[in-house]
Amino acid sequence: MNISQVLKRTMNISQVLNYVTHVIFDMDGLLLDTERVYKYGISTVLKKYGCEYPDDVKAMVLGSQPPDMMKILFRETKLSESGKTKDEVYKEIVDTYTPLMSSAEWMPGALRLINHLHKHNIPFAIATSSAKESFELKTSRHKDTLKLFHHVVLGSADPEVKQGKPAPDVFLVAAKRFDEKPQPSKCLVFEDAPNGVLGAKAAGMSCVMVPDPTVPKHRTEAADLVLNSLEEFKPELYGLPPFEDK
């Protein structure tokens, strides 16, 4: 269901999809424009070993933790014929994209939504598959805005996150770390990756998806709402205060 279909059906927002009290954001490709950097790093290394990085494989990789990502790449490409281990190839990928990571900018509509939620005292957090070092690098120029988040859960580094997306762990951990400890049904997740959407739904949460353009349409169907950009989001669809700058 896309935003135009929802708005047509609800007519002046007379209906609400769900009433939520807390918001959880993915980060890569949703808040920060980092997926293009990851794609560059992965595709560059794969090309070195005579492999392609097609969109269907990228859709599988989106939102995954490093060990899961490498399993996918070795399974879906010819990397297994490279003579390299998963750890060796992963290090090459990281070394390739790391110099570019600190240049990541906010995705369209991200700052507007963050500031709006903060203004109206809606608690919000980040639930990402990132490791600590990677997170610090890509957010190095955005520390002031990050202070507005109640907390951050790093799926690759947090001992309470036993399994990565599409398991629900990172979202459930994020929810219980809010002061109010909301029920999952009162949490709204924003995701760009199919694995993240599946994880949010497995956690029992509502999920708005802003998919990467390469994600096939059938892999967006688990989301409650699909948008082209965070700029299209209507907070009132989830019982949140509407934007004042319409």
Structure description:
The chain is α/β, with parallel strands linked by helices. The protein folds into two domains: 22-33 and 104-238, HAD superfamily/HAD-like (Rossmann fold, 3-Layer(aba) Sandwich); 35-101. It is 38% helix and 9% strand. It is built from ten helices and six strands. It has a six-stranded parallel sheet with strand order 3-2-1-4-5-6, with helices on both faces. Helix 10 links the parallel strand 4 (187-191) and strand 5 (206-209). The two termini are 22 Å apart.
Strand-helix topology:
Layout: H1 3-10, E1 22-25, H2 35-48, H3 55-61, H4 66-76, H5 86-101, H6 110-119, E2 124-128, H7 132-138, H8 143-146, E3 152-154, H9 169-176, E4 187-191, H10 194-202, E5 206-209, E6 225-226
Helix pairs in contact: 2-5, 4-5
CATH class category of the largest domain: Alpha Beta
Q: Work out the count of structural domains.
A: 2
Q: List the total number of helices.
A: 10
User: What CATH architecture label of the largest domain applies?
Assistant: 3-Layer(aba) Sandwich
CATH topology of the largest domain: Rossmann fold
Major sheet attributes: 6 strands, parallel
Read across the widest sheet, the strand sequence of neighbours is 3-2-1-4-5-6
Spans where pLDDT lies below 50 across 5 or more residues: 3-13
| CATH superfamily grouping of the largest domain | HAD superfamily/HAD-like
User: How big is the Rg?
Assistant: 18 Å
* Overall average residue pLDDT: 92
GO molecular function, one term: phosphatase activity
InterPro entries: HAD-like_sf, HAD-SF_hydro_IA, HAD_sf, PGP-like_dom2
Organism: Diaphorina citri
Protein name: Pseudouridine-5'-phosphatase-like
